[in-house]
Structure to design on (870 residues):
């Protein structure tokens, strides 16, 4: 018997350079905040999503260490790692554990320590998200791949760099209102001029900031007093690199995972009124919006305005996105899901609609989507 | 001619890195008078890029040599790398180059060290291996990223580059190695101790008792042995630590300047050590007409010299266009300042 | 962590030449080599070695260079379309940034990829540089 799956509670720690906290302290903080907002939970399963604790914290088996630190016992313990998409992969894992009946209550914590080393070393670890033998070993970094895709995009659709820079401006504006966002300050439309180039034409302001974070969700088969139901999940994959695909500007796995989730939820994309997307680099925001089918191919920069966070009637990245909320790697998908969960419960406008989360590793190399709605 | 030719040059290839450092820039940094630069006849030198070393330079030159030799890498039975700037003190450069070129394991492969003449000796070794029937073809590489202590007069010339030759069956060669002769003594004119990055040298002592004495003895030995005279040669190529020495030794041997100048490359690319005379040979092969005879006399400190008599064959015409010429690589250049030179040549100590 | 000798040894065939897949069913060529065709899913694919000559299709100049590659900064990362009909990302060397242009002919060359401190291994692999002189011969990546 397939059981319904609900998100009962969630929390998020401010994303920042938490020099004074290791992954255990961050995970504990997220757990405490979850319990203080909801009351105590009694999970039978702990799922930790974390991308690179081996490289950043010299830790293998991180889920067991966190379980012990939280003094939780008699648990099924897992760590889920799918690069930058680890968080949403962990949600799919929790979903399947609960829906199958194997688990009744799953505590999911996404946690990542990023700011432990100098930028060049962080960039090297982040370069491992692709096929290292092909790209990482040569110094071909995710930033350089995003830059190349940006140039192909601008060339094909006739945009200038300034046209694309609307996205970071909008994301920073949104992040000001998000209490756990890392970059809570406004950008001017020409702020890029003072921003160093990381991989031409992309500048530091086109990339997500490096920061640490932890976010938690309690997922169970019981709706409780107030709850958001996970109505659909989807996942798909593609080549690790974008350039060997027939069209590098269309992230097929993003479309497939989203379509699968919509089909499972039994809705059309027009019912999704709020979505958090994976915008690690400016061009990816546009390519993802187009791959999701929310805008026509090549239209995304025209559809985005610095004044409004919605495309047609769908709110996009109210949080500030990876760009300004931040992107603590393996924790990001949990933050995104928490943000949609919180809005569905808190915003009257969204009470009768669906929210969605899109996550991916690399340029749509592996993709995950989740659709949810408020049920109580 | 003394003996029946038993080995020939099947193909040749050269490689000179893109970057150049002007001698005037070195003089400016270290406070040399312009007359020093003039006395050496050095205009600029080639500088290997940050990701280049003897192995990558040797690979490039070898690739061109194999293209001109028109043989399958599987036919190469020996790979010799003459160098004094091995990327690994222990671990052969030859194995890496051979593997990257697709030369199968059934081969000889070694790095040889005899200052600037190790590759020259590898040529003589190869003639012996081929004449004996042990192998069908040998790949001889002379390549260096020559070291010089910053500020030393050596720094004006020490450069990066190399040349490679496929030595093999004379019936499929572009030139015949008619005869050769070696002259070697214990002469401490230039040395580098194990584990130390820069060589030391005896300044004026590197001249008469070393460079001049050994080359002249080798050339005279070859002439005596072969019965040839200087006038039998159309081109004469000597080791060229600078632009002046080869002209001076030529003058002592009675060689007209015009026979030496075509093989002079050091004033434009610097002294590539093991590639020095061999780049000169490559440049002469780029232009020599069939029937031309070449006298080649490399020199290596320590000290020794080899003299070769090489006769150019008709087949050379069809092989030239198969790879870039030395002049194309001399013209391909990008000037860098001294600061970039010390960075890319790893002269800055970093954590 | 030291660079692994077994890894570099094991990878040498892929480091020293461009090995790609050619699908015998639909004719597609692609890099890196894979067990099945990425276009038609046919298992009937074979590994081939590229001659290493191609055209620069797109590029970026990377300034945020990952650790251990910083001596190479800035790095030019390009998309190269090999003459055999597939595209890959490659590091472009020996090209002045202001002279870079799409459509430029490039060839595969062996270069140092990275160096493990002053006592560890040196990893060599394929990068690309503008073709020297006229288009010569059959290119690199032999055998």
């Amino acid at each position: 018997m397939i059981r319904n799956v609900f998100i009962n509670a969630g929390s998020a720690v401010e994303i920042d350079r938490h020099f004074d906290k290791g992954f255990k302290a961050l995970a504990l903080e997220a757990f405490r905040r979850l319990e203080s907002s909801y009351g105590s939970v009694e999970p039978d399963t702990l799922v930790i999503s974390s991308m690179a604790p081996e490289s950043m914290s010299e830790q293998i088996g991180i889920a067991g260490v966190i379980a012990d630190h939280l003094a939780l016992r008699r648990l099924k313990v897992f760590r889920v790692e799918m690069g930058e998409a680890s968080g949403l992969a962990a949600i799919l894992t929790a979903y399947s554990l609960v829906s199958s009946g194997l688990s009744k209550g799953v505590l999911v914590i996404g946690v990542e320590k990023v700011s432990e080393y100098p930028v060049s070393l962080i960039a090297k670890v982040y370069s491992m998200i692709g096929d290292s033998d092909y790209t990482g070993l040569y110094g071909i970094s995710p930033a350089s791949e995003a830059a190349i895709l940006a140039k192909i995009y601008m060339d094909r659709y006739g945009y200038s760099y300034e046209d694309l820079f609307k996205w970071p401006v909008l994301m920073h504006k949104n992040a000001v209102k998000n209490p756990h966002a890392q970059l809570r300050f406004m950008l001017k439309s020409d702020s890029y001029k003072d921003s160093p180039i990381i991989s031409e034409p992309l500048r530091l302001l086109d990339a997500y900031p490096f920061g640490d974070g932890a976010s938690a969700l309690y997922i169970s088969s019981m709706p409780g007093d107030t709850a958001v139901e996970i109505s659909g999940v989807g996942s798909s994959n593609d080549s690790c690199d974008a350039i060997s695909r027939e069209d590098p500007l269309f992230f097929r796995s993003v479309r497939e995972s989203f379509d699968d989730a919509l089909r499972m939820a039994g809705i059309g994309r027009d019912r999704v009124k709020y979505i958090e997307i994976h915008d690690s680099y400016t061009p990816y925001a546009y390519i993802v919006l187009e791959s999701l089918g929310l805008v026509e191919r090549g239209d995304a920069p025209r559809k985005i305005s610095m004044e409004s966070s919605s495309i047609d009637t769908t709110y996009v990245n109210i949080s500030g996105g990876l760009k300004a909320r931040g992107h603590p790697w393996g924790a990001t998908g949990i933050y995104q899901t928490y943000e949609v969960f919180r809005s569905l419960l808190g915003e009257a406008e969204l009470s009768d609609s669906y929210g969605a989360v899109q996550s991916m590793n690399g340029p749509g190399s592996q993709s995950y989507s989740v659709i949810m709605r408020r049920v109580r | 001619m003394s003996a029946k030719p038993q080995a020939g040059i099947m193909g040749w290839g050269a490689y000179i890195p893109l970057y150049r450092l002007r001698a005037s820039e070195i003089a400016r940094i270290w406070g040399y008078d312009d007359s020093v630069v003039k006395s050496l006849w050095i205009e600029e030198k080639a500088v290997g890029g940050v990701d280049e070393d003897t192995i990558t330079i040797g690979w490039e030159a070898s690739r061109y040599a194999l293209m001109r030799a028109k043989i399958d890498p599987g036919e190469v039975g020996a790979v010799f790398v003459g160098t004094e700037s091995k990327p690994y003190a222990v671990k052969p450069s030859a194995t890496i180059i051979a593997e990257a070129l697709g030369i199968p394991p059934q081969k000889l492969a070694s790095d040889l060290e005899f200052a600037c003449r190790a590759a020259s000796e590898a040529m003589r070794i190869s003639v012996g291996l081929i004449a004996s029937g042990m192998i069908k073809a040998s790949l001889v590489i002379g390549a260096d990223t020559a070291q010089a202590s910053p500020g030393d007069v050596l720094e004006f010339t020490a450069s990066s580059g190399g040349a490679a030759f496929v030595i093999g069956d004379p019936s499929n060669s572009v030139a015949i190695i008619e005869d050769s002769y070696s002259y070697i003594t214990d002469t401490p004119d230039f040395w580098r101790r194990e584990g130390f990055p820069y060589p030391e040298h005896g300044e004026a002592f590197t001249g008469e008792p070393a460079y001049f004495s050994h080359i002249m003895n080798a050339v005279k030995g070859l002439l005596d042995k072969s019965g040839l005279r200087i006038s039998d040669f159309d081109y004469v190529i000597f080791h060229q630590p600078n632009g002046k020495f080869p002209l001076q030794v030529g003058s002592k041997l009675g060689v007209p300047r015009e026979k030496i100048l075509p093989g002079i490359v050091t004033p434009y690319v610097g002294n590539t050590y093991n590639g020095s005379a061999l780049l000169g040979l490559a440049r002469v092969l780029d232009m020599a007409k069939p029937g031309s005879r070449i006298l080649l006399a490399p020199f290596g400190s320590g000290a020794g010299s080899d003299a070769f008599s090489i006769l150019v064959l008709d087949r050379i015409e069809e092989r030239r266009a198969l790879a870039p010429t030395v002049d194309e690589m001399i013209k391909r250049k990008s000037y860098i300042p001294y600061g970039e030179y010390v960075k890319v040549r790893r002269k800055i100590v970093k954590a | 962590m030291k660079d692994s000798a077994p890894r570099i040894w094991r990878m040498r065939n892929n480091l020293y030449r461009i090995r790609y897949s050619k699908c015998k069913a639909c004719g597609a060529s692609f890099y890196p080599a894979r067990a099945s065709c990425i276009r038609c899913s046919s298992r009937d694919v074979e590994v081939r070695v590229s001659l290493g000559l191609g055209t620069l299709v797109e590029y970026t100049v990377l300034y945020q260079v990952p650790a251990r590659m910083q001596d190479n900064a800035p790095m030019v990362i390009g998309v190269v379309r090999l003459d055999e009909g597939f595209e890959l990302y490659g590091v472009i060397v020996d090209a002045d940034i202001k002279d870079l242009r799409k459509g430029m002919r490039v060839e595969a060359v062996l270069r140092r990829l990275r160096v493990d401190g002053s006592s560890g291994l040196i990893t060599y692999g394929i990068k690309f540089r503008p073709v020297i002189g006229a288009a010569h011969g059959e290119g690199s990546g032999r055998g």
Remarks:
- The radius of gyration of chain B is 19 Å.
